[in-house]
Amino acid sequence: MANAQDTGKKVILSPNAPNPIGPYSQAIQVGKTVYLAGQAAIDPKSNQPMVNASIEDQTRRTLDNLKAVLEADGMTMDHIVSTTVFLKDLNDFGKMNEVYATYFKDAPPARATVEAARLPRDLKVEISAIAVRP
Asked: Residue 7 has what pLDDT?
């Protein structure tokens, strides 16, 4: 069985983002590409979900969690080339999009947005991303 080092994989872990709630890494770097696991509106200090928060506040916390993982590897949101947004209710698309746009002002990443029947911890939004170093 190959270990992560043998495959060129580097695990990225930030103390400023929520601990994984399952057998996965916050992010994995392979070469110049970083694959970020889906983040949601979970407070990184208490590890408690923001279930009753608005879609705007949940989106902000979710993106701040992604940002923290990137920063742990010396990257910024500008390095993100693709995201996948999972929404509990596609009717929240406009409000989520308003907050999302403030994080990606210049050359926003490619994106897919889908409605999911249920998200972990019954939150309203989850976002995963792929980032690339120049």
From this structure: 79
